[in-house]
What does this fold into?
Amino acid sequence: MTSIALFGCGTVGMAVCDIISREMVEEDGPLSGCSVDMIVVRDKTKYLQDGAKNILKDLFVDDMQEALKRIPSVDVVVEMIGGTTTAWDIVQTGLVFDKIVITANKALLSKYTKELEELNRTTKATLAFEASVGGGIPIIKSLLRDIQWCTANAYGVRQISGILNGTSNYILTQMEENKLPYETAVKMAQDRGYAEADPSADVLGWDARCKIQILQRLAFGVTVDPENIVCEGITDIQEVDFEYGKAMDCKVKLVATTVGNKNGVRAWVLPTMVPMIDPIASTNGVKNIVSIYHETMGPISMSGFGAGGDTTAHSVVSDLYNCLKCKNTSSVWFGSARHCRKDYVADIQLRFYIRLTVSDKVGIITDIGRVCETLSVSIDAVLQNPVGKDYDFTKDLLQFVVVTNETSYQKIKELKERLVNCEWCKGDPFLMALL
Ligand SMILES: NC(=O)c1ccc[n+]([C@@H]2O[C@H](COP(=O)([O-])OP(=O)(O)OC[C@H]3O[C@@H](n4cnc5c(N)ncnc54)[C@H](OP(=O)(O)O)[C@@H]3O)[C@@H](O)[C@H]2O)c1
It folds into this structure.
C-alpha cells in the first residue's frame, strides 16, 4: 500500500481529493494500491461540515506539528497549502525523509531553488511540480522528458515565451475587448474569483516571474534570484496602447521569456507588443500559453487553462501517477547541473515601445533624438495614432510612441530617466517590449 499525505484542501487540494477518492476505489486503476493517510488543513471544522469529501472525511488533521511528525511514515507528500513558510517545512521534511514530494507551489520553488537543488543532491527523494507552471498545461514533464531530454546531454531549447498568468491576461483581454479601464477590469477579475483581494503578485508580474524562473532553470540549468529577472507588470497599460497595438498589427500581452544562447541566459517579464500571427497574441481570457523555440523541432506551443481546481489537480495527480510508476528514479524533475549552458546575464536586448505623454511644443522630437543619440539608442519609428479623434488629447496633453531598434534594457531605463526630466514630458514614459 502506498500512503499519501495531502497538505491543503482548498481550490486545488479539494479537487485532488475528489480525483483521488474516485481513482483509489477503481480496481486495477493507477491509484488502486494507494491510501490517503491524512488531509492537513488549518481548521478542520469547516471541512467536516462539508459532506462532499465522502470516504476521506475522517482523515482531516489541523495540527501541523503532529502532521509533520507523521511524514516519515507516509510514502508521498502532496503540498497544496501555498505560501513559503509552513509549505517549506512540509516540502523540506518530505525531501529529508526521502519521500515523493509533489507541490503546486511556484513561489516556494522560486524562493528555495538552491536549497531544493542541495536536497536533490543529498537525498533520494523525488520532487515533482507539474502544477506549478501553467496549471493544467503539461509543460514541465514535456519539457524535461520529451523536449529537453533531461537524462542525456542534449540541448536544443533556445527560447521559451509565454503568458504564464491567467489573471493579468483576463484583465488585458477585458480592457481590450470591452474598452474597460484597468481598475474596472481588475474589479471584474476579483468578482469572478480570478484575482485575489490584493492582486499585486499577478498584475505586477511577480507570479509570472516565479514561473519563468522555474522554466529557465529546467531549460538552461541556471539558477537565478527572482530579483535579477527584469519584471514589469500591467498596471500602467492604457486604452491607447491597444490602439497603437492595432496600428502595429500586434496585441498587448504580459509575456514572460527566457532565452539561452552562446551569449548566456536571460529572462524577463514585460508587457509586450505581440505580432497578431504569433499564437501568444490569440491566447485570451484566463488562458495561458507556453511557446518553445527548439533548435531542431522549431516552434512548439501549448495552451490551456493556467489555473482552476480541476485543471491544476489534474497536473498534481499526473505527477502522482508518474512518480509511482517510476519509483526510485529520483531527481529527474530538477534536471541536472550539466545542463548549465552559460552564465545568467541580467541585462536584456530587445526592441522597445515607449509611450510618452507630453505638453505640445516645438522641439520635442529634436530633444528625444538628441538623448537617443547620446545613449546610442537607435529609433525605428515615431507613431502618433490615433490623433485626438476618440481621445481627450487636448493641445496641452498629447501621447505618442517611440519604437526603438534592439537595445539594452539598462539603456532604455536611462533614456526614460532623461526624458522624464525634459520640461515637456508629463508623467513617467511607459515601456513595453516588442516580441
Ligand atoms: N488555485 C489555482 O488555480 C492554482 C493553480 C496553480 C497552482 N496553485 C498553487 O496551489 C497551491 C494551493 O492553492 P489553492 O488555490 O488551492 O489555495 P487555497 O484555496 O487558499 O487553499 C489552501 C488550503 O491550504 C490550507 N492551509 C493554508 N495554510 C495552512 C497552514 N498554515 N496550515 C494548514 N493548512 C493550511 C487551507 O486550510 P484552511 O481552509 O483551513 O485555511 C486550505 O485547505 C498554491 O501554492 C498555489 O500557488 C493554485
User: Anything to note?
Assistant: The chain is about 35% helix and 25% strand. The CA atoms of residues 112 and 252 lie 32 Å apart. Residues 328-333 have pLDDT under 50 and may be disordered. The first helix runs from residue 11 to 24.
